Please model this.
Amino acid sequence: MDDIGSGQKVLEWITLVLALIFIVMGISVVSGIFFPERMFLEGAMRYVLGFILIGYGLVRLTMISRRLKREKRQKPFAEKT
Model:
């Protein structure tokens, strides 16, 4: 087993999980679970922060998935671990 290849796979999974965490955090901010009203963010600022977090998570998720698909197309017969 290739150490560089397995390390790369672990890093890919970590970045995917982090992107999903940003999406979940954004949804929880918009719904008021993460930052309740009047505690830190009031009104429109909560929605702005929530949608920014959701957008960042979606952009990261698309970038990572496109990179993984491109690598899979370039190496169709790569050894599966």
Summary: The chain has two helices and no strands. The helical segments are 3-31, 44-74. The radius of gyration is 17 Å.
